[in-house]
Amino acid sequence: MTTSEITELEKVIIGSIIQKESLLDSHFMEKHIIADMFTDSRNQLLYANLVNMHYIAGMKINSVSLFQYLATSNQLEACGGGVYIAELEGDGFPSNIDFYIEQLQEVFLRRETVKKLRTAMETVGHADKVTPDDVTKIIADFSQLTEIAETTKIADINHLFTLAKNETNKAMQTKEPTGILSGFDVFDSVSDGFQKGELSILAARPSIGKTSLALSMCMNIAKAHPVAFISLETPDKMIAFKITGLLADTPIFQLRKGYLTEQKYRETFEQKAAEFRQRNFFLVDKTSVDIMELKSIVRRLVLQYGIEIVFVDYIGLVDAGSLNMPVYEKQTIVSRSLKEMAREFNIAVCALCQVSRGAEGQNKPPLLSDLRGSGSIEQDADVVMFIHGNRIIPKDERTATRELIIAKNRNGECTLGKINFVKATAKYENLKKKE
Q1: Beta-carbon count within 10 A of 425 CB
Q2: What local confidence, expressed as pLDDT, does residue 24 receive?
Protein backbone atom coordinates (compact mmCIF):
# COMPACT_ATOMS: atom_id res chain seq x y z
CA MET A 1 0.00 0.00 0.00
CA THR A 2 1.11 3.56 -0.68
CA THR A 3 1.20 6.17 2.09
CA SER A 4 -1.99 7.81 0.82
CA GLU A 5 -3.79 4.43 0.70
CA ILE A 6 -2.75 3.67 4.28
CA THR A 7 -3.96 7.08 5.45
CA GLU A 8 -7.28 6.52 3.67
CA LEU A 9 -7.58 3.11 5.36
CA GLU A 10 -6.96 4.63 8.78
CA LYS A 11 -9.57 7.33 8.18
CA VAL A 12 -12.18 4.71 7.27
CA ILE A 13 -11.43 2.82 10.50
CA ILE A 14 -11.60 5.91 12.75
CA GLY A 15 -14.76 7.07 10.97
CA SER A 16 -16.36 3.66 11.49
CA ILE A 17 -15.81 3.90 15.26
CA ILE A 18 -17.33 7.38 15.35
CA GLN A 19 -20.37 6.04 13.50
CA LYS A 20 -20.68 2.87 15.59
CA GLU A 21 -18.78 2.77 18.90
CA SER A 22 -19.87 -0.79 19.68
CA LEU A 23 -17.22 -1.89 17.18
CA LEU A 24 -14.61 -1.20 19.86
CA ASP A 25 -15.98 -4.05 21.97
CA SER A 26 -16.89 -6.49 19.21
CA HIS A 27 -13.94 -6.04 16.88
CA PHE A 28 -11.02 -3.84 17.90
CA MET A 29 -10.18 -5.09 21.38
CA GLU A 30 -10.62 -8.73 20.40
CA LYS A 31 -8.19 -8.28 17.52
CA HIS A 32 -5.55 -6.43 19.55
CA ILE A 33 -5.77 -3.12 17.67
CA ILE A 34 -3.49 -0.52 19.30
CA ALA A 35 -2.76 3.12 18.55
CA ASP A 36 0.76 2.31 17.30
CA MET A 37 -0.75 0.52 14.31
CA PHE A 38 -1.78 3.89 12.86
CA THR A 39 0.89 5.75 10.87
CA ASP A 40 -0.72 9.22 10.84
CA SER A 41 -0.08 10.96 14.18
CA ARG A 42 -3.59 12.45 14.11
CA ASN A 43 -5.14 9.01 13.74
CA GLN A 44 -2.89 7.54 16.44
CA LEU A 45 -4.03 10.18 18.92
CA LEU A 46 -7.67 9.96 17.85
CA TYR A 47 -7.78 6.19 18.32
CA ALA A 48 -6.17 6.45 21.77
CA ASN A 49 -8.73 9.09 22.80
CA LEU A 50 -11.65 7.08 21.43
CA VAL A 51 -10.54 4.10 23.53
CA ASN A 52 -10.23 6.34 26.62
CA MET A 53 -13.66 7.87 26.01
CA HIS A 54 -15.28 4.45 25.71
CA TYR A 55 -13.50 2.43 28.40
CA ILE A 56 -12.27 4.99 30.94
CA ALA A 57 -14.58 8.01 30.73
CA GLY A 58 -17.62 5.90 29.81
CA MET A 59 -18.73 8.52 27.30
CA LYS A 60 -21.01 8.04 24.31
CA ILE A 61 -18.96 8.36 21.11
CA ASN A 62 -20.05 10.56 18.24
CA SER A 63 -18.44 13.45 16.34
CA VAL A 64 -19.84 16.07 18.75
CA SER A 65 -18.74 14.31 21.95
CA LEU A 66 -15.31 13.58 20.42
CA PHE A 67 -14.90 17.25 19.49
CA GLN A 68 -15.81 18.36 23.02
CA TYR A 69 -13.56 15.73 24.65
CA LEU A 70 -10.54 16.78 22.58
CA ALA A 71 -11.19 20.50 23.07
CA THR A 72 -11.43 20.06 26.84
CA SER A 73 -8.11 18.17 26.95
CA ASN A 74 -6.40 20.64 24.55
CA GLN A 75 -5.80 17.91 21.95
CA LEU A 76 -8.13 19.12 19.21
CA GLU A 77 -5.49 20.70 16.98
CA ALA A 78 -3.10 17.75 17.40
CA CYS A 79 -5.92 15.50 16.18
CA GLY A 80 -6.44 17.52 13.00
CA GLY A 81 -9.08 20.00 14.15
CA GLY A 82 -12.84 20.09 13.86
CA VAL A 83 -12.92 19.95 10.04
CA TYR A 84 -10.86 16.74 9.98
CA ILE A 85 -13.09 15.08 12.58
CA ALA A 86 -16.19 16.03 10.59
CA GLU A 87 -14.63 14.45 7.47
CA LEU A 88 -13.84 11.23 9.33
CA GLU A 89 -17.45 10.48 10.21
CA GLY A 90 -18.36 10.54 6.51
CA ASP A 91 -15.45 8.21 5.66
CA GLY A 92 -16.61 5.40 7.95
CA PHE A 93 -17.82 2.05 6.63
CA PRO A 94 -18.85 -0.04 9.67
CA SER A 95 -20.58 -2.84 7.77
CA ASN A 96 -17.30 -4.30 6.51
CA ILE A 97 -14.97 -3.32 9.35
CA ASP A 98 -13.34 -6.76 9.56
CA PHE A 99 -11.77 -6.24 6.15
CA TYR A 100 -10.28 -2.87 7.16
CA ILE A 101 -8.94 -4.28 10.44
CA GLU A 102 -7.21 -7.09 8.55
CA GLN A 103 -5.65 -4.55 6.19
CA LEU A 104 -4.45 -2.39 9.10
CA GLN A 105 -2.93 -5.40 10.83
CA GLU A 106 -1.23 -6.57 7.66
CA VAL A 107 0.37 -3.16 7.02
CA PHE A 108 1.47 -2.89 10.67
CA LEU A 109 2.94 -6.40 10.75
CA ARG A 110 4.84 -5.80 7.53
CA ARG A 111 6.20 -2.49 8.83
CA GLU A 112 7.19 -3.91 12.23
CA THR A 113 8.73 -7.04 10.74
CA VAL A 114 10.96 -4.97 8.46
CA LYS A 115 11.92 -2.74 11.40
CA LYS A 116 12.79 -5.67 13.64
CA LEU A 117 14.73 -7.41 10.87
CA ARG A 118 16.84 -4.29 10.38
CA THR A 119 17.46 -4.02 14.12
CA ALA A 120 18.44 -7.71 14.29
CA MET A 121 20.81 -7.34 11.33
CA GLU A 122 22.44 -4.29 12.89
CA THR A 123 22.81 -6.11 16.21
CA VAL A 124 24.41 -9.14 14.59
CA GLY A 125 26.47 -7.14 12.13
CA HIS A 126 28.07 -4.87 14.73
CA ALA A 127 28.65 -7.52 17.39
CA ASP A 128 32.05 -9.11 17.82
CA LYS A 129 30.38 -12.29 18.92
CA VAL A 130 26.78 -13.50 18.73
CA THR A 131 25.70 -15.22 21.93
CA PRO A 132 22.66 -17.41 22.64
CA ASP A 133 21.26 -14.48 24.66
CA ASP A 134 21.40 -12.29 21.55
CA VAL A 135 19.46 -14.89 19.58
CA THR A 136 16.93 -15.27 22.39
CA LYS A 137 16.38 -11.49 22.49
CA ILE A 138 15.86 -11.36 18.73
CA ILE A 139 13.33 -14.20 18.90
CA ALA A 140 11.54 -12.50 21.81
CA ASP A 141 11.22 -9.28 19.78
CA PHE A 142 9.54 -11.16 16.95
CA SER A 143 7.31 -13.16 19.29
CA GLN A 144 5.66 -9.89 20.38
CA LEU A 145 4.10 -9.73 16.92
CA THR A 146 2.55 -13.18 17.05
CA GLU A 147 -0.38 -12.15 19.27
CA ILE A 148 -1.39 -9.58 16.67
CA ALA A 149 -0.77 -11.94 13.76
CA GLU A 150 -2.81 -14.78 15.27
CA THR A 151 -6.16 -13.98 13.68
CA THR A 152 -6.26 -17.14 11.57
CA LYS A 153 -9.28 -19.31 12.22
CA ILE A 154 -8.51 -22.96 12.97
CA ALA A 155 -11.62 -25.13 12.84
CA ASP A 156 -11.90 -28.84 13.59
CA ILE A 157 -14.05 -31.26 11.59
CA ASN A 158 -16.98 -31.00 14.00
CA HIS A 159 -17.13 -27.23 13.59
CA LEU A 160 -17.04 -27.57 9.80
CA PHE A 161 -19.77 -30.22 9.86
CA THR A 162 -21.98 -28.00 12.06
CA LEU A 163 -21.31 -24.99 9.83
CA ALA A 164 -22.32 -26.92 6.71
CA LYS A 165 -25.41 -28.26 8.46
CA ASN A 166 -26.56 -24.82 9.65
CA GLU A 167 -26.01 -23.21 6.24
CA THR A 168 -27.86 -26.05 4.52
CA ASN A 169 -30.80 -25.73 6.93
CA LYS A 170 -30.91 -22.00 6.26
CA ALA A 171 -30.93 -22.59 2.50
CA MET A 172 -33.67 -25.23 2.80
CA GLN A 173 -35.88 -22.86 4.79
CA THR A 174 -35.44 -19.76 2.65
CA LYS A 175 -35.28 -21.48 -0.76
CA GLU A 176 -33.69 -18.28 -2.06
CA PRO A 177 -30.57 -18.01 -4.23
CA THR A 178 -27.30 -17.31 -2.43
CA GLY A 179 -26.28 -14.77 -5.05
CA ILE A 180 -27.63 -12.08 -7.37
CA LEU A 181 -29.35 -13.77 -10.31
CA SER A 182 -28.34 -12.50 -13.74
CA GLY A 183 -31.50 -13.70 -15.44
CA PHE A 184 -29.50 -16.05 -17.71
CA ASP A 185 -30.07 -19.73 -16.95
CA VAL A 186 -26.69 -20.88 -18.30
CA PHE A 187 -24.85 -18.81 -15.70
CA ASP A 188 -27.34 -18.87 -12.81
CA SER A 189 -27.80 -22.65 -12.84
CA VAL A 190 -24.14 -23.34 -12.01
CA SER A 191 -23.27 -20.26 -9.93
CA ASP A 192 -26.55 -19.37 -8.20
CA GLY A 193 -25.94 -15.86 -9.48
CA PHE A 194 -23.20 -13.31 -8.85
CA GLN A 195 -21.83 -13.83 -5.34
CA LYS A 196 -20.93 -10.93 -3.06
CA GLY A 197 -17.22 -10.69 -2.36
CA GLU A 198 -16.37 -12.32 -5.70
CA LEU A 199 -14.93 -11.09 -8.99
CA SER A 200 -16.48 -12.30 -12.24
CA ILE A 201 -15.05 -11.72 -15.71
CA LEU A 202 -17.17 -11.44 -18.85
CA ALA A 203 -14.95 -11.72 -21.93
CA ALA A 204 -15.31 -11.95 -25.69
CA ARG A 205 -13.76 -10.90 -28.97
CA PRO A 206 -14.60 -7.37 -30.21
CA SER A 207 -18.10 -6.72 -31.54
CA ILE A 208 -19.64 -9.87 -30.05
CA GLY A 209 -21.65 -7.85 -27.53
CA LYS A 210 -19.98 -7.83 -24.11
CA THR A 211 -21.58 -4.51 -23.21
CA SER A 212 -24.97 -5.63 -24.51
CA LEU A 213 -24.92 -8.82 -22.42
CA ALA A 214 -23.75 -6.91 -19.35
CA LEU A 215 -26.56 -4.34 -19.76
CA SER A 216 -29.11 -7.13 -20.32
CA MET A 217 -27.92 -8.68 -17.05
CA CYS A 218 -28.10 -5.28 -15.35
CA MET A 219 -31.71 -4.76 -16.38
CA ASN A 220 -32.63 -8.22 -15.06
CA ILE A 221 -30.75 -7.67 -11.80
CA ALA A 222 -32.04 -4.12 -11.27
CA LYS A 223 -35.56 -5.38 -10.66
CA ALA A 224 -34.46 -6.88 -7.32
CA HIS A 225 -31.01 -5.42 -6.52
CA PRO A 226 -29.36 -1.99 -6.87
CA VAL A 227 -26.77 -2.26 -9.66
CA ALA A 228 -24.17 0.15 -11.07
CA PHE A 229 -22.58 0.13 -14.52
CA ILE A 230 -19.25 1.96 -14.79
CA SER A 231 -18.75 2.75 -18.46
CA LEU A 232 -15.22 3.69 -19.50
CA GLU A 233 -15.73 3.04 -23.21
CA THR A 234 -19.32 3.76 -24.21
CA PRO A 235 -20.79 7.28 -23.66
CA ASP A 236 -23.93 7.77 -21.60
CA LYS A 237 -26.07 8.63 -24.66
CA MET A 238 -25.30 5.28 -26.27
CA ILE A 239 -25.94 3.44 -23.01
CA ALA A 240 -29.29 5.26 -22.79
CA PHE A 241 -30.22 4.09 -26.31
CA LYS A 242 -29.19 0.49 -25.51
CA ILE A 243 -31.20 0.38 -22.29
CA THR A 244 -34.24 1.95 -23.94
CA GLY A 245 -33.97 -0.47 -26.84
CA LEU A 246 -33.90 -3.59 -24.72
CA LEU A 247 -36.56 -2.49 -22.22
CA ALA A 248 -38.99 -1.01 -24.74
CA ASP A 249 -38.17 -3.43 -27.58
CA THR A 250 -37.44 -0.48 -29.84
CA PRO A 251 -34.63 -0.74 -32.44
CA ILE A 252 -31.61 1.33 -31.42
CA PHE A 253 -31.19 2.64 -34.95
CA GLN A 254 -34.70 4.14 -34.86
CA LEU A 255 -33.98 5.82 -31.53
CA ARG A 256 -30.69 7.35 -32.75
CA LYS A 257 -32.16 8.62 -36.02
CA GLY A 258 -35.54 9.59 -34.63
CA TYR A 259 -37.33 7.23 -37.03
CA LEU A 260 -40.31 6.70 -34.75
CA THR A 261 -43.98 7.12 -35.48
CA GLU A 262 -46.03 9.00 -32.93
CA GLN A 263 -47.53 5.73 -31.76
CA LYS A 264 -44.12 4.04 -31.40
CA TYR A 265 -42.80 7.08 -29.53
CA ARG A 266 -45.69 6.89 -27.04
CA GLU A 267 -45.20 3.14 -26.65
CA THR A 268 -41.49 3.61 -25.98
CA PHE A 269 -41.41 6.62 -23.70
CA GLU A 270 -44.87 6.77 -22.14
CA GLN A 271 -46.29 3.26 -21.95
CA LYS A 272 -42.91 1.77 -21.01
CA ALA A 273 -42.06 4.46 -18.44
CA ALA A 274 -43.04 2.13 -15.60
CA GLU A 275 -40.54 -0.45 -16.89
CA PHE A 276 -37.73 2.05 -16.35
CA ARG A 277 -38.88 3.11 -12.89
CA GLN A 278 -38.84 -0.51 -11.72
CA ARG A 279 -35.09 -0.73 -12.32
CA ASN A 280 -32.68 0.32 -9.56
CA PHE A 281 -29.86 1.12 -11.99
CA PHE A 282 -27.06 3.70 -11.87
CA LEU A 283 -24.61 4.64 -14.62
CA VAL A 284 -21.14 6.11 -14.04
CA ASP A 285 -19.82 7.61 -17.29
CA LYS A 286 -16.03 8.13 -17.22
CA THR A 287 -13.53 8.33 -20.07
CA SER A 288 -10.64 7.23 -17.85
CA VAL A 289 -10.14 6.23 -14.23
CA ASP A 290 -7.31 4.92 -12.07
CA ILE A 291 -7.81 2.17 -9.56
CA MET A 292 -7.90 4.50 -6.52
CA GLU A 293 -10.52 6.77 -8.11
CA LEU A 294 -12.54 3.71 -9.08
CA LYS A 295 -12.44 2.52 -5.49
CA SER A 296 -13.64 5.93 -4.31
CA ILE A 297 -16.52 5.86 -6.82
CA VAL A 298 -17.59 2.38 -5.72
CA ARG A 299 -17.47 3.35 -2.04
CA ARG A 300 -19.79 6.28 -2.76
CA LEU A 301 -22.16 4.03 -4.75
CA VAL A 302 -22.35 1.54 -1.89
CA LEU A 303 -22.79 4.12 0.86
CA GLN A 304 -25.18 6.44 -0.98
CA TYR A 305 -27.23 4.04 -3.11
CA GLY A 306 -26.77 0.63 -1.47
CA ILE A 307 -25.26 -0.87 -4.62
CA GLU A 308 -24.89 -4.67 -4.40
CA ILE A 309 -23.17 -5.37 -7.73
CA VAL A 310 -20.93 -3.29 -10.00
CA PHE A 311 -20.12 -3.89 -13.67
CA VAL A 312 -16.89 -2.33 -15.03
CA ASP A 313 -16.67 -1.84 -18.80
CA TYR A 314 -13.89 -2.66 -19.27
CA ILE A 315 -10.88 -3.87 -17.24
CA GLY A 316 -8.28 -2.83 -19.83
CA LEU A 317 -9.21 0.85 -19.45
CA VAL A 318 -8.65 0.99 -15.68
CA ASP A 319 -5.28 2.62 -14.98
CA ALA A 320 -2.99 1.08 -12.36
CA GLY A 321 -1.52 4.53 -11.64
CA SER A 322 2.02 4.14 -13.01
CA LEU A 323 3.07 5.07 -16.54
CA ASN A 324 6.40 3.25 -16.41
CA MET A 325 4.95 -0.09 -15.35
CA PRO A 326 4.76 -2.99 -17.85
CA VAL A 327 1.26 -3.78 -19.10
CA TYR A 328 1.25 -7.19 -17.42
CA GLU A 329 2.07 -5.68 -14.01
CA LYS A 330 -0.63 -3.02 -14.45
CA GLN A 331 -3.17 -5.71 -15.26
CA THR A 332 -2.11 -7.65 -12.19
CA ILE A 333 -2.65 -4.63 -9.94
CA VAL A 334 -6.05 -3.84 -11.49
CA SER A 335 -7.44 -7.39 -11.32
CA ARG A 336 -6.21 -7.87 -7.76
CA SER A 337 -7.68 -4.51 -6.73
CA LEU A 338 -11.06 -5.39 -8.24
CA LYS A 339 -11.07 -8.64 -6.28
CA GLU A 340 -10.16 -6.79 -3.06
CA MET A 341 -12.85 -4.20 -3.80
CA ALA A 342 -15.51 -6.92 -4.00
CA ARG A 343 -14.43 -8.24 -0.63
CA GLU A 344 -13.93 -4.84 0.99
CA PHE A 345 -17.39 -3.52 0.11
CA ASN A 346 -19.08 -6.94 0.25
CA ILE A 347 -20.46 -6.58 -3.27
CA ALA A 348 -20.26 -8.58 -6.48
CA VAL A 349 -17.96 -7.16 -9.17
CA CYS A 350 -18.18 -8.14 -12.83
CA ALA A 351 -15.48 -6.75 -15.11
CA LEU A 352 -15.65 -6.93 -18.90
CA CYS A 353 -12.49 -8.06 -20.68
CA GLN A 354 -11.22 -8.56 -24.22
CA VAL A 355 -9.47 -11.67 -25.46
CA SER A 356 -5.92 -11.44 -26.82
CA ARG A 357 -5.45 -10.35 -30.43
CA GLY A 358 -4.01 -13.73 -31.35
CA ALA A 359 -7.38 -15.34 -30.69
CA GLU A 360 -9.55 -12.70 -32.38
CA GLY A 361 -9.24 -14.06 -35.91
CA GLN A 362 -9.93 -17.65 -34.90
CA ASN A 363 -13.39 -19.17 -34.98
CA LYS A 364 -12.77 -21.57 -32.12
CA PRO A 365 -14.21 -20.91 -28.64
CA PRO A 366 -11.92 -18.68 -26.53
CA LEU A 367 -9.89 -20.20 -23.71
CA LEU A 368 -8.76 -18.86 -20.34
CA SER A 369 -5.29 -18.39 -21.85
CA ASP A 370 -6.83 -15.97 -24.40
CA LEU A 371 -7.68 -13.39 -21.72
CA ARG A 372 -5.59 -10.26 -22.02
CA GLY A 373 -3.28 -10.27 -19.03
CA SER A 374 -4.59 -13.79 -18.45
CA GLY A 375 -2.12 -14.76 -15.75
CA SER A 376 -3.49 -12.27 -13.22
CA ILE A 377 -7.10 -12.08 -14.39
CA GLU A 378 -7.52 -15.84 -14.53
CA GLN A 379 -5.98 -16.22 -11.07
CA ASP A 380 -7.98 -13.47 -9.34
CA ALA A 381 -11.37 -14.17 -10.93
CA ASP A 382 -13.84 -16.47 -9.21
CA VAL A 383 -15.86 -16.84 -12.40
CA VAL A 384 -14.83 -16.38 -16.04
CA MET A 385 -17.42 -16.52 -18.81
CA PHE A 386 -17.01 -16.06 -22.55
CA ILE A 387 -19.47 -15.14 -25.30
CA HIS A 388 -18.75 -17.07 -28.49
CA GLY A 389 -20.35 -16.92 -31.90
CA ASN A 390 -20.37 -15.15 -35.23
CA ARG A 391 -20.09 -11.40 -34.91
CA ILE A 392 -21.70 -10.76 -38.32
CA ILE A 393 -25.43 -11.48 -38.53
CA PRO A 394 -27.02 -11.79 -42.00
CA LYS A 395 -29.35 -8.92 -42.92
CA ASP A 396 -32.39 -11.13 -43.27
CA GLU A 397 -31.96 -12.65 -39.79
CA ARG A 398 -33.43 -10.91 -36.74
CA THR A 399 -31.54 -12.88 -34.08
CA ALA A 400 -28.35 -14.84 -33.61
CA THR A 401 -27.69 -17.78 -31.32
CA ARG A 402 -24.42 -17.57 -29.39
CA GLU A 403 -22.75 -19.61 -26.69
CA LEU A 404 -22.21 -18.48 -23.12
CA ILE A 405 -19.23 -20.48 -21.86
CA ILE A 406 -18.55 -20.69 -18.12
CA ALA A 407 -14.82 -21.44 -18.39
CA LYS A 408 -13.94 -21.00 -14.72
CA ASN A 409 -16.20 -21.37 -11.71
CA ARG A 410 -14.37 -21.52 -8.41
CA ASN A 411 -17.43 -22.70 -6.46
CA GLY A 412 -19.33 -24.67 -9.07
CA GLU A 413 -19.15 -26.51 -12.34
CA CYS A 414 -18.04 -25.22 -15.73
CA THR A 415 -20.52 -25.47 -18.57
CA LEU A 416 -21.78 -23.85 -21.75
CA GLY A 417 -25.18 -23.10 -23.15
CA LYS A 418 -26.99 -21.13 -25.83
CA ILE A 419 -28.25 -17.57 -25.49
CA ASN A 420 -30.13 -15.43 -27.99
CA PHE A 421 -29.00 -12.03 -29.35
CA VAL A 422 -31.63 -9.71 -30.81
CA LYS A 423 -29.90 -7.64 -33.46
CA ALA A 424 -32.15 -4.56 -33.61
CA THR A 425 -32.28 -3.91 -29.85
CA ALA A 426 -28.83 -5.35 -28.92
CA LYS A 427 -30.59 -7.45 -26.29
CA TYR A 428 -29.46 -10.83 -25.00
CA GLU A 429 -32.07 -13.23 -23.66
CA ASN A 430 -32.48 -16.87 -22.70
CA LEU A 431 -33.01 -19.21 -25.61
CA LYS A 432 -36.63 -20.28 -25.69
CA LYS A 433 -37.27 -23.93 -24.79
CA LYS A 434 -38.29 -25.00 -28.32
CA GLU A 435 -35.09 -23.45 -29.68
Answers
A1: 25
A2: 81
